[in-house]
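WARN no homologs supplied; continuing
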Amino acid sequence: MAHHAAGLGRLIRRRPDATALIEGLKRDHTLLDLTLRERVLLDYAAKLTRTPWEMDNSDLDPMREAGLSDRDILDANLTVAYFAYVNRLAQGLGVEVEPYVG
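OK structure emitted
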């Protein structure tokens, strides 16, 4: 989480709410004041990460209704899946994350 939060921090550092957003994401994204696009993407990412066996086609509907294209949805899916894969790889090999120095 610390490593990913540091990366996100670099991407959104110009947002006035960057620190609060990152801290809120660490706790519970559903409690944050987000755009509809951010909300549906985070809801999708959370479900795909926590309970992938429960996913079905209806999980794509909120994203489409929020205006995301099929390409946007594919990008979200690939990103979430990639991070899950890399995290499992690191955890399975006992890799320890070095503290972020920025």
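The chain has two domains: 1-32, 34-96.
OK
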